[in-house]
Specification:
Layout (H helix, E strand, L loop, with lengths): L15 H10 L17 E7 L10 E2 L2 E2 L2 H6 L4 E3 L2 E2 L7 H10 L9 H4 L8 H6 L4 E6 L8 H7 L4 E3 L9 E2 L2 E2 L1 H12 L6 E6 L25 H26 L5 E7 L9 H8 L16 H7 L4 E4 L7 E3 L3 E2 L3 H8 L20 E2 L5 E3 L2 E4 L7 E4 L5 E3 L1 H7 L1 H19 L3
Parallel strand pairs: 1-10, 1-11, 4-13, 5-14, 6-7, 6-10
Antiparallel strand pairs: 2-3, 4-12, 8-9, 11-12, 15-16, 16-17, 17-18, 18-19
Length: 423
């Protein structure tokens, strides 16, 4: 029997606390009693990190940590180190949709532009039934991604966009993260508790133009490249995040809340592939441009992982889970943490364990350390995500993972069925 086939279990070890939480949260045949849930009744604060990829976390350049704050936070909460973005044509808005509904994005275009009618079984609507107030904070123009139309369908009642913020430094698409987080921290104190708030940052987005006066991080030997500018943007975004968490801690909100920190999608263009690989291999040159014959698509796919971290003072034990998970799992997990159900979800409650695979629009799948792609009725290519090498192809690849492929197709179809109810 082939060790990679669907017929062989290669389960990842899950920390003991996950098993204990599974007993506490989910091993019930009846509705969960909120009194048994340590997080029920807490505020929920989503913190959306724009274009933030995982590969920088824990890394240094010239002896300086790139993400010192996230490095520390991952030691304080439940850290999923291999979370994959599952966005499609809607990009950032797709990430928003998934983390609110645990449904997958549309096969074409953006959900936010096409499927806006009615009310979704979203985390906002679910928590509103439990007496929560709901709000979104974003330093961009309000009408981007049709948000004023879509947010009510997600149960989000208050929307503070750029127009509601005091004039301040603009970086890239909108208000810079530091002034944005500072004002948002004050606005959160005006919300009646318990509340659900989604806080969407911006400064990690291209074109990565962080003024030297705002962040003096030196990206040498990548100075003057997109990759170097990206490292500077992420260092700035991490610093701003650190200040925001400090504000929440100082105000007392953090200890009364579940904070969910997640990334929306990758930020680096493929043209920076070789610099990225040089960086990860401790190369000192960093100046060679990528060429098509050196690119390993599976390695690039692996580098697109985004942060996923759950912080809850006194209720979640620090631990790291290295199995692949997806953005579609976030809302389902948060609902369970709050003692609620999420009808129609195609995600996994991560308190039960990790999903058997991560599915993407376009038909590709990640199963443990493998990437299954270019799937047809008669074939599939299967790559090792650790080294980028092709493991299986053609009919053999399709046959070995036929069960996973069928389940992924059913997941996509189930999500589509829900979307069509909102067209």
């Amino acid at each position: 029997m082939n060790k990679y086939s669907d017929n062989t279990s290669r389960a990842y070890p899950i920390r003991l606390f996950l098993l204990l939480l599974a007993i506490l949260f989910a091993l019930h045949s009846k509705p969960i009693d909120a009194a048994e849930i340590p997080l029920a009744g807490r505020n929920v604060i989503y913190i959306h990190l724009e274009s933030f990829q995982n590969f920088m976390i824990g890394q240094t350049l010239n002896g300086i940590p790139i993400t010192p704050n996230l490095n520390a936070f991952t030691q304080q909460g439940l850290w999923f180190s291999h979370c994959y973005p599952q966005t499609a044509g809607g990009n950032t808005s797709d990430a928003e949709f998934m983390v609110h509904t645990s449904l997958l994005p549309a096969s074409k275009g953006a959900v936010f532009n096409q499927f806006t009618s009615g009310s979704y079984h979203s985390i906002g609507n679910i928590l509103k039934k439990k007496g929560y107030n709901t709000a979104v904070f974003h330093g961009n123009t309000a009408n981007v991604w049709n948000r004023p139309v879509m947010y009510p369908a997600l149960g989000l009642d208050r929307f503070d966009s750029a127009a509601q913020y005091a004039p301040g430094l603009k970086i890239g698409l909108g208000l810079a993260d530091r002034p944005f987080y500072t004002e948002t921290a004050h606005q959160l104190l005006t919300l009646k508790e318990p509340f659900f708030a989604d806080v969407l940052s911006l400064s990690g987005h291209s074109p990565f133009t962080i003024p030297i006066s705002e962040d003096s991080f030196n990206p040498a030997p990548y100075t003057g490249t997109v990759f170097g500018d990206y490292l500077r943007a992420i260092h700035y975004a991490d610093g701003a995040l650190g200040l925001f968490i400090a504000e929440l801690r100082h105000s007392g909100l953090l200890e009364k809340s579940l904070a969910v920190i997640y990334g929306d999608h990758g930020g680096l263009p493929l043209s920076e592939y070789e610099r990225l690989e040089h960086f990860l291999n401790n190369s000192q040159s960093g100046q060679t441009k990528a060429s098509s014959n050196t690119i390993k698509p599976a390695l690039w796919r692996a580098r697109t992982q985004v942060p996923l971290l759950f912080l809850a003072h006194g209720a979640i034990m620090p631990a790291s889970v290295g199995a692949p998970v997806g953005q579609v799992d976030i809302a389902h997990t948060v609902a369970a943490m709050m003692g609620a159900e999420m009808p129609g979800s195609v995600g996994t409650n991560l308190m039960h364990g990790v999903p058997p695979f991560v599915a993407f629009r376009g038909g590709s799948i990640i199963k443990e350390d493998l990437w299954i792609t270019n799937v047809t009725d008669s074939g599939a290519e299967v790559y090792n995500l650790a080294n980028g090498d092709l493991v299986f192809s053609g009919k053999e690849g399709r046959l070995l993972f036929s069960g996973t492929i069928k389940r992924a197709i059913k997941m996509l179809e189930a999500s589509d069925k829900v979307l069509e109810q909102h067209r």
